[in-house]
Amino acid sequence: HNLNDYKDRWLIIYFYPKDDTPGCTTEAQNFTEKYTEFKNLNTEILGVSMDSIESHKEFAEKYNIPYPLLSDKDEIMSTAYDVVREIPFMHHSKRQSFIINPSGVIVKHYPDVSPSSHTSEVLNDLVTLQSSL
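RE: above sequence
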């Protein structure tokens, strides 16, 4: 996946620590529940963690996640977005999100995410951002 793949569309990139854990599952399910609303706003969602492709596949199948989950095992994307959390003996992505406009510009950053309310917050902000154009 490359930002150019989403040219002319809005993009939500949400980073999360680990597949199939309580907070990450809540967040993924909330984005899944509102996925059609995001699509109707010309918006794609990408979930990103340092889990393996196989782990993402199992997680997506278990919870019927309709949007791509990207494996960032090499930490390239997490480093680029400055969301790597380094804990002794373990690295994972911090729970942070970004709204990127159709020109590829980050227009909103969420550095402190609550898994239960985040999706609604992003959707409301997206509507506001799109209506201000």
